[in-house]
Amino acid sequence: MSSGREDHHQDVRQYYPTKGRVILHLDMNAFYCSVHEAEDPDTYKGKPTAVAGSIELRKGIIVTCSYAARGLGIRTGMTVRQAERICPQLILIQPDFHLYRRYSRAFLEIANSYTPLVEAVSIDECYMDITGSKTFGTPHQIAAELQQRIREELSIPCSIGIAPNKLLAKMASDMKKPNGITVLRIREVPKLLWSLPCHELFGIGRKTADKLLKMGIRTIGELANADIERLHHTFGVYGDAMRLAANGLDHSLVKSEREQSKSIGHTTTLPQDIGTDEEVRRVLLNLADQVTRRMRKQALMAHTIQLTIRNPDMKTITRSVTIDVPSDDTGRFMEEAWRLYEKHWNKGDPIRLLGITGQNLVSKEEAAVQLDLFEYEQQPKKDKLNETMDKIRDKFGESSLITLGMVGEDPSTLLRNHRRRGTSLQTDFLRDWEQGDKKS
């Protein structure tokens, strides 16, 4: 005669496939604003709020906004000035990335208490493979408990998608926001997804959707049934992947260990155009410093240094140089970036955006660093100096130690306060957490 516990276990097992997987996608809703609301509910709860990068100049962009603000017409990507016209009572909040990281680690710790197979894909979302987590209940019970714990322990809302693969789990988590739990099965894809335009399929951007439209492929359903040879001719292997995705198929695994970065870079959209050598050098030095600092933190070195420049008319150039000896040194990055600037840009022309990226990364341990005699003597001193500076800034903050060339009165020097496009969702800190706190 079976015990009640065995009966319960049998009941739970029927909700898991005998073959295949059960994947959750956790997406924190309006994460930055929700974090501020959790920290200070008296000031922010239920009110229209927005996190923006440059509040003082009123030229900043809305990074995210609360659901109360969205209900009034505020959208991500608006300028602060546009948003304030729509909603004069909008509460603007300066970003606090240390705070966001703390909450990100906290929700990932909750996720890791249900399965070791957790893949953080950004600061506010992760995948979980719960195929082996039957002891915690059915997939829906696990999702509901996760949502409740995150709400009770952190006071932030999240939406969760439940599906047999990562693609559908991601699509499902977007279907009900905030605080939704959605199950999406492969057999439901034709009914629920095929009538949607192609750009609604995760992984397909506007440009790709426009190309598909020119081919006469308007919806996800038309993509799912498109001629594979035609897709392959236009998009190569990506065409095959798009067709599989349109049919709800995705074979990628949830990877609990983060892969080595393929590139590390920083780009900043400047609050006002710059053009003098002094201004350009100052911004490039800030960018080179931040890029190499992140590389050293991951024990990586770059063979290729890339410079990105954009003018006020949105014309963008990218130029790169491959160096013989891989480097993580700020001075070397600055030197090469400046050479690229002098070679490929008309001095004095206005610049709206600048970026530096380290590419072709290799592990510092594996890098075959061939040093000439001078470098052989100087490199250990450079490494020791960089290590000391990094430790000071880890302890006392980014602005605690800067070189003279980074200082200036123009707004570009605010780089150091995280006003850099594309850095807010960087997940370097997750690697630190996984290698440190997670193991302890």
Account of the protein in words:
This protein is of the alpha+beta class and 440 residues long. It has helices at 4-13, 31-39, 41-44, 67-70, 80-86, 97-112, 139-154, 166-173, 189-192, 206-214, 220-224, 228-235, 237-246, 277-297, 330-344, 373-396, 428-435, and strands at residues 23-28, 49-52, 62-65, 91-93, 118-122, 125-129, 158-163, 181-183, 263-274, 300-310, 316-327, 351-363. The protein contains 17 helices and twelve strands. The strands form three sheets. The chain has a five-stranded mixed beta sheet with strand order 5-6-1-7-8. A four-stranded antiparallel beta sheet has the order 9-12-10-11, with helices on one face. The longest helix has 24 residues, at 373-396. The chain is globular, with a radius of gyration of 24 Å. Residues 1-6, 368-377 and 395-426 have low confidence and may be disordered.
Number of helices: 17
Count of individual beta strands: 12
Radius of gyration: 24 Å
Order of helices and strands: HEHHEEHHEHEEHEHEHHHHHEHEEHEHH
Q: Structural class given helices, strands, pairing? A: alpha+beta
Mean pLDDT: 83
* CA(first)-CA(last) distance: 43 Å
Report the uncertain regions.
Answer: 1-6, 368-377, 395-426
Instruction: Specify the overall morphology.
Output: globular
